[in-house]
Design goal:
Chain A has about 210 residues and is mainly alpha-helical. In chain A, about 80% of the residues lie in helices and about 0% in strands. The longest helix of chain B has about 35 residues. Classes of the chains: A mainly alpha (about 210), B mainly alpha (about 550). Chains A and B meet through α1 and α6 of A and α8 and α9 of B.
């Protein structure tokens, strides 16, 4: 409390830094939301290592890898869309956001077929096939469906955000000097990507 | 001429002609002050429901065996009493009503950073609250798990668990959005010269609370979501029949629900830190210590959840660590109590109603805190766990602490919010009823709990009846006091005498603006040059009368 008056941010009509901060705080909550599930995964993996090992072999690594590549590419197109709008290239930015949307959709289609295959093998919550398996495998598939399902839900929410931003760019609400809405949507999209980066090895790669 | 002053003065937030008319002037508003009032009305409604359930529980326990309600109804009532009082009343009350209204004004801002998000929080709150009440009447019957939703009963019972946990999930969302909003507001919107250490202590406590809201709430969100998924889709996660671990559920539940205690308590402590210096006419003692202790409580409070599970099955070493950490939390809490007391020392105390509630807070919180230390000790906890002692301890902190903090805030700030004063004599009579009723209701619980009365039981042995009778009679006095207080406040706010901008002689920024505050709060953005509690003007004119 020394006498100098440190000039703080005067309430402005626009404060991009603050908007980004709000989004970061929200992303913390998302991380902790998934963090809770990662803890459950860790605990059960520790208590049922052999059964987790066995169950993980049911998953198709190549499908998982294709989806990883799709999402990583979509993160790249997202980042490029932001740079494009900041360089005043509205058309390119819209094309890149659309590309991100297409990739996100491809991810979901892939996921749909992956889940359907599991279902056709009789592996779904409450199925007689699954209930006949040892507890560790029941837990593994329970977590698999819940965690990838919740992640897919986040992909859909992200797609909604991107679609809204596409309209914003078209209507001139998001422009080269007012790009913070697209930037925060981008932050969210990278988070969706980041969570997948952890889900992929935990379910598909660790055997 | 009156006409001229009216033309010059900006209309206050209650009388301004808004963008939307009719009911939309409230339901579509983004004014933090109007949103604060909407929270006030909705929270008051839910509080009335919670009091009703609590009242019925006490009435049922008046005699052994059936008194007024059957055992299943009793189970539902204590569940709903807990869910409503915790998630709909004490968690949101101070931040959402008084934080929304006064945080921007106290830091010299015109609104919160995300005004529309603020309105969304209110809608989520209302949806969640409605869902909790609707679950009472849906087929299946009201939820009877207790507010903790412990596994495996919560996946086996046929009652409406899913609506109730959906309600808590949605309310958590509302709480998170409020937290995000407050942190961003405090970081980005402080007026020029409003440095961190010139901020009043109420914003400080809201800041610490907001971090806990943001970082802890998602855990209960995901945990209860998983319980819901487990119930609906039969996915194996916590249910031991499907290989799950019920103890893991308890860990995750308390990982949020213990920090939630500090979400509940910290803002009320902030209120007390505002009230005490104003009515002691002294700068608060140990400003920085109080500010830092809020952060310390938020930090340590997030690490102690295991003390809810000492008898649930845990290794000795983790029990030892959790017990030790629980003791540590009491240090920053005690720092606050000592500083409040030291602020009163040699102050020129004006024993107004808000200060009475604040003093009751300090005493009740000390009792609640000490009993908390007792049950934080491993050996004593084994004797006292799951007894009425726990209920007593909990209510001394939640009600005797936060509840009284809310009442202090109401008597302190409502005149500012509505521009009118309540009847002070009636307020003191109501206060006396509430304090006596409160202590009669909850103190016997320590005694009977120590003697072995279990909590949540519908029936009891005849030897406990005397304590139950005292407690139930206390609850009648308490409810009478609450009704008196609420009626007095409502009457005062409708037709009480008008008050000026600074009825209490406060020094923080909210007392510098007109009463009720104008829509934009400040005609000009204030420039802050001193700390929050500058009472040097009282040192010069000690005999100065505070004019209403």
């Amino acid at each position: 409390m020394n006498g100098t008056i440190e000039v703080q941010a005067v309430p402005l009509h626009r404060d991009d830094e603050g908007s980004r901060m709000g989004m970061w705080l929200f992303l913390f909550t998302e991380l902790i939301l998934f963090g809770g599930m990662f803890i459950i995964y860790a605990v059960y993996r520790f208590s049922h290592p052999a059964e987790f090992h066995l169950a993980a072999q049911e998953l198709d690594t190549s499908v998982g890898m294709i989806n990883t590549i799709i999402l990583l590419t979509s993160s790249m197109t997202m980042a490029m869309a932001i740079t494009a709008i900041q360089k005043k290239d509205k058309i390119l930015s819209m094309a890149l956001v659309s590309a991100t949307l297409v990739l996100a959709f491809a991810f979901l289609v892939n996921k749909f077929f992956e889940w359907s295959t599991k279902f056709s093998h009789g592996i779904y919550p409450g199925s007689t096939e699954l209930m006949g398996k040892p507890p560790g495998e029941v837990l593994y598939f329970g977590l698999y469906f819940v965690m990838t399902g919740l992640h897919a839900l986040h992909v859909m929410i992200g797609m909604g955000l991107l679609a809204v931003n596409l309209a914003f760019i078209k209507r001139g609400i998001v422009t080269w000097d007012k790009s913070v809405k697209l930037e925060t949507a981008g932050l969210y999209w990278h988070l969706v990507d980041l969570i997948w980066i952890f889900l992929f090895p935990l379910f598909y790669l660790i055997h | 001429m009156a006409f001229e002053t009216a033309a010059v003065q900006e209309p206050d937030y209650l009388h301004v002609r808004p963008k939307h008319t009719g009911i939309g002037a409230w339901l579509l508003t983004t004014d933090h002050k109007r949103i604060g009032l909407m929270y006030l009305y909705t929270i008051l409604t839910f509080f009335a429901c919670g009091v009703f359930f609590g009242f019925m529980l006490r009435l049922e326990l008046l005699t052994p065996g059936r008194t007024v309600i059957d055992p299943q109804t009793y189970n539902s009532f204590f569940t709903l009493h807990g869910v409503i009082m915790i998630f709909l009343v004490v968690i949101p009350a101070v931040p959402s009503i008084f934080g929304n209204f006064f945080l921007p004004i106290m830091i010299g801002a015109k609104d919160v950073f995300f005004p529309r998000l603020n309105l969304l929080s209110w809608y989520l709150y209302v949806i969640g609250g409605t869902l909790a009440l609707v679950s009472l009447f849906l087929p299946g019957g009201p939820v009877d798990t207790g507010w903790t939703f412990y596994i495996p009963y919560s996946v086996r019972t046929t009652t409406n668990v899913v609506p109730a946990i959906s309600a808590v999930f949605i309310l958590g969302f509302s709480s998170i959005l409020t937290g995000v909003n407050f942190i961003t507001t405090i970081h980005r919107m402080r007026a020029p010269g409003m440095t961190w250490f010139r901020m009043p202590l109420f914003p400080w406590s809201l800041y610490a609370t907001a971090w806990v809201q943001v970082l802890a709430t998602p855990i209960i969100g995901i945990t209860l979501l998983l319980v819901g998924i487990e119930r609906i889709f039969k996915v194996g996660i916590f249910d031991p029949a499907l290989g799950g671990d019920p103890i893991l559920y308890q860990h995750l539940f308390w990982t949020y629900s213990h920090p939630a205690v500090y979400i509940i308590l910290l803002p009320a402590m902030g209120v007390i830190s505002e009230v005490i210096p104003v009515f002691a006419r002294r700068t608060i003692f140990g400003y920085k210590f109080i500010a830092y202790s809020s952060i310390a409580i938020a930090f340590f409070g997030s690490l102690v959840w295991g003390h809810h599970m000492f008898t649930a099955g845990m290794s000795d070493s983790s029990m030892f660590i959790f017990s030790f950490l629980s003791f540590l939390v009491s240090i920053p809490s005690a720092i606050k109590v000592f500083n409040w007391t030291a602020t009163l020392y040699k102050g020129s105390i004006a024993l107004e109603v808000p200060l009475l509630y604040a003093l009751a807070f300090v005493i009740h919180f000390s009792i609640g805190g000490f009993t908390g230390l007792m049950i934080g000790a491993l050996s004593i906890d084994i004797h006292l766990q799951d007894t009425a002692f726990i209920v007593g301890h909990f209510h001394y902190v939640m009600f005797g602490g936060t509840g009284f903090g809310i009442f202090a805030a109401a008597h302190y700030w409502l005149p500012k919010m509505f521009g009118r004063m309540y009847n002070k004599k009636t307020a003191i009579v109501a206060f006396a009823h509430i304090v006596i009723g409160f202590n009669l209701t909850y103190f016997p619980m320590f005694v009977m709990g120590y003697l072995g009365m279990p909590r949540r039981y519908y029936d009891y042995l005849p030897q406990f009846q005397i304590y139950h009778v005292i407690s139930t009679v206390g609850s009648w006095i308490l409810v009478a006091g609450l009704i008196m207080m609420v009626v007095n406040l409502i009457r005062g706010m409708i037709s009480g005498p008008r008050v000026g901008p600074d009825p209490w002689g406060g020094t923080t920024l909210e007392w510098t603006v007109p009463t009720p505050p104008p829509v934009e709060n400040f005609a000009d953005v204030p420039v802050v040059t001193t700390g929050a509690y500058d009472y040097s003007r009282y040192a010069e004119t000690t005999e100065k009368e505070v004019v209403l």
